[in-house]
Design brief:
By secondary structure, the chain is mostly helical. 75% of the residues lie in helices and 0% in strands.
Length: 252
């Protein structure tokens, strides 16, 4: 939702800057409408065009890296959940009590109806925290009877520790990594650039439509970059398929 609001604000600012500059040009005094003045304005705008292109490239690269890293962590997360369940299964019937909260935990992540609609699958909440704690508590209560069970018990504890680490890694990266100040600065540059485009631009429907369409496309591009930076929300999300496959394995 925040990304959509930012995109709408960018669109409004760019349209207002370009059309406002175009409409205000004729009202300026003659000394402000000289060719030399126009040349300086466009020269300064060109500097910000280059800087804006560089910053947008860095933002896109940062968002892509964040998305790919989170996607990799989700796959690793699902793998560790399956390995934890396999260790508990191999341990024997005594570990069945520890498997129940594990299945409930994975089910909660996969089932959209089991959590608030605005809560990502991996975001911390009290019930998920209790389920993770219950798994650890029941695992600690197991008393291995032989060397094989001891090895499986140790493997299960290591898998659970890895699950907890990955869970908090996903939580910490669920809010995005692009600084807000960078977004504000980029929007300010774009407003200056579009205002320079409107300076001495012909006042007709074609030019106005071009400004509106360009503003919309640029705002949409920035929206997609910002949405990619938040992998658990919006139209571009990390696939839940690994967790769904993990749940199928746990219930199989």
């Amino acid at each position: 939702m925040r990304e959509a609001q930012v995109a709408i604000l960018i669109f409004v600012c760019l349209v207002a800057a370009s059309l406002g500059s175009m409409l205000m040009h004729e009202r300026l005094s003659s000394r402000h409408r000289q060719d030399d003045t126009t040349g300086v304005v466009r020269l300064v705008a060109n500097i910000f065009v280059v800087m804006t292109s560089l910053v947008m490239g860095l933002m896109l690269n940062s968002a892509r890296n964040t998305f790919e890293q989170i996607d990799h962590n989700v796959h690793d997360y699902a793998t560790q959940l399956i390995l934890l369940d396999r260790a508990l299964r191999d341990y024997g019937p005594e570990a069945e009590d520890a498997r129940q909260p594990l299945i409930a935990y994975v089910q909660r992540m996969v089932d959209n109806e089991a959590r608030p609609s605005n809560e990502p699958a991996t975001v911390a909440n009290k019930l998920s925290e209790r389920l993770i704690g219950e798994i650890g508590s029941r695992l600690r209560n197991l008393k291995p009877a032989n060397a094989e069970q001891t090895v499986l018990w140790q493997d299960a504890r290591q898998n659970l520790q890895k699950v907890i680490e990955l869970r908090w890694t996903l939580i910490e990266h669920s809010e995005g990594t692009i600084p807000r100040l960078l977004i504000v600065m980029l929007v300010a540059w774009l407003v200056l650039v579009f205002a320079s485009f409107g300076f001495r631009a012909p006042r007709n429907a074609v030019v106005a439509t071009t400004f509106v369409a360009s503003s919309a496309l640029l705002a949409a591009s920035l929206y997609l970059v910002l949405d990619m930076d938040v992998p658990f929300d919006g139209p571009i999300q990390v696939s839940p398929a690994p967790l769904e496959r993990a749940l199928a394995e746990l219930k199989g």
